[in-house]
Amino acid sequence: xxxxxxxxxxxxxxxxxxxxxxxxxxxxxxxxxxxxxxxxxxxxxxxxxxxxxxxxxxxxxxxxxxxxxxxxxxxxxxxxxxxxxxxxxxxxxxxxxxxxxxxxxxxxxxxxxxxxxxxxxxxxxxxxxxxxxxxxxxxxxxxxxxxxxxxxxxxxxxxxxxxxxxxxxxxxxxxxxxxxxxxxx
Length: 185
What we know:
Layout: E1 6-20, E2 23-29, E3 32-34, E4 42-47, E5 52-54, E6 71-77, E7 87-97, E8 102-113, E9 118-123, E10 126-134, E11 140-142, E12 159-165, E13 175-183
Parallel strand pairs: 4-7, 5-7, 10-13, 11-13
Antiparallel strand pairs: 1-2, 1-3, 1-6, 2-4, 6-7, 8-9, 8-12, 9-10, 12-13
């Protein structure tokens, strides 16, 4: 395949998978995109009969095995539409990581520990909702526009939606691992 006609997105999260009479597609967001030529973080990958869909081990799988929340790498045509989200023909979609059991919490950041890469949130001003989120290096951090941002840009007062592990420590405050942090206000 000639790379002059190929773009790639890595570590993108599947937002939607659809298959029907009008065609099949996978909507992904939050990945790192090379040669995309646009600043949009969401992309609709149109799946055709020649699209190769692979699991983590490189085995071919059907489109029906893809689920929301999975992390994928994809190769697709540089010819994209100007729609929102942009659309392109997918050549290869490969699962990198399957969705783990997770939950979502919305709260306001009240404290940040930059040395330990963690932050604390509170929801609705209720002290019983305080949670400390530990942020691994591979966590996805998105600004209010859905674009990647650095951990160092998180500040107290930001309202965030955190997708995190379903387990929490029994400490005070309880702690858990953040997978995705999205600033919402």
